[in-house]
């Protein structure tokens, strides 16, 4: 479902990984952790912001989110 929602939002370069807390087969009641990572490119502008970077230009960082839920 995570990949479907990312596709709906036109985010095509995301990485989605998941794992189960149980035996790895995701039985009912096991905790499932889903981690989504998306590279994000932004541009520093202005002299004040350039003090916090090596200057002007585009930078890329990875935005990561993790959610844990129980399987039904």
Overall description:
With 72 residues, the chain is of the alpha+beta class. It is built from two helices and three strands. The chain has helices at 2-8, 47-50; strands at residues 15-20, 31-44, 57-70. A three-stranded antiparallel β-sheet has the order 1-2-3, with no helix packed on it. The two termini are 15 Å apart.
Write the layout of secondary structure elements.
Layout: H1 2-8, E1 15-20, E2 31-44, H2 47-50, E3 57-70
Antiparallel strand pairs: 1-2, 2-3
Short description:
With 72 residues, this protein is α+β, with helices and mostly antiparallel strands. The protein is 15% helix and 47% strand.
Count up the helices: 2
Binned strand content:
over 45%
Q: What is the terminal separation in angstroms?
A: 15 Å
Helix content: 10-25%
Quickly give the structural class.
alpha+beta
| Order of neighbouring strands in the sheet with most strands | 1-2-3
């Amino acid at each position: 479902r995570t990949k479907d929602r990312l596709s709906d939002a036109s985010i095509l370069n995301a990485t989605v990984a998941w794992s189960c807390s149980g035996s790895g087969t995701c039985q009912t009641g096991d905790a499932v952790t889903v981690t989504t990572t998306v590279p994000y490119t932004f541009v520093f502008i202005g002299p004040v912001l350039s003090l916090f970077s090596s200057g002007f230009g585009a930078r890329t960082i990875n935005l990561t989110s993790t959610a844990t839920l129980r399987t039904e």
